[in-house]
Amino acid sequence: MNDNLNILYDNFFNxxxxxxxxxxxxxxxKRFATKIAxxxxxxxxxxxILFVSxxxxxxxxxxxxxxNTFQDFEQRKKxxxxxxxxxxxNPHMAGVYGTALYFLKDYYNWISNxxxxxxxxxxFNRILIENKEILPxxxxxxxxxxxxxxxxxxxxxxxxxxxxxxxxNEKDEIELLINIINTINPDVIxxxxxTLMNYFKNLIKPKISEKTEIxxxxxxxxxxxxxxxxxxKNYIKDLIENGKI
Length: 245
Fold this sequence. Notes:
Blueprint: H1 2-15, E1 30-32, E2 37-38, E3 49-53, H2 60-65, H3 73-81, H4 91-104, H5 111-119, H6 124-130, E4 143-147, E5 151-153, H7 170-184, E6 188-191, H8 197-204, E7 213-216, H9 232-242
Parallel strand pairs: 3-4, 3-6, 6-7
Antiparallel strand pairs: 1-5, 2-4
Helix pairs in contact: 1-7
């Protein structure tokens, strides 16, 4: 699968004049941030789930590791899909974990684990911290995750804000996402922002398998008036009742 994905990425880099070592776009202060994360068990999963997040929000390799490059498959997999360390998941990845647990519960005997999360009036990440010894450790190894917006400002340190939620070449970026979806063939797509509704409904859904279910919900680290959706039962209720397209 990675070989086929690399062909897509190589073509995208060539068309958009992106340095294959640094990920930097010629003539711009932007870096291609990361390739898709694919867990070790994704290809054998009984229900394949692709999460679509917004953007990476931080030039992670440069800021955290002093590496002037983007994240490859292996690095991104370790960052997103690593088993264990539930107490270390940030609000976003704790939400990914909880959502994946819900959608996979009937396939891997995780029903009681989801019932535990559903019973708590706490945020996703607090539940993971307090129940790290009880909850299954390998949930994230069954998922894949990609960012809708591919680029990050070089040297960006703070994740907050939407300054990188824009396109450099919308046509090519949407086409890349469609081609990646058709390569990894998910059964379910979970879109983590309602701002992406029209893109998926009008541009993406018509060009992927009719069998693929698409749910569009809030970002798991939402704050403000929507902060109640950091609580698992609220998040899943909205996703199931209002999110399917």
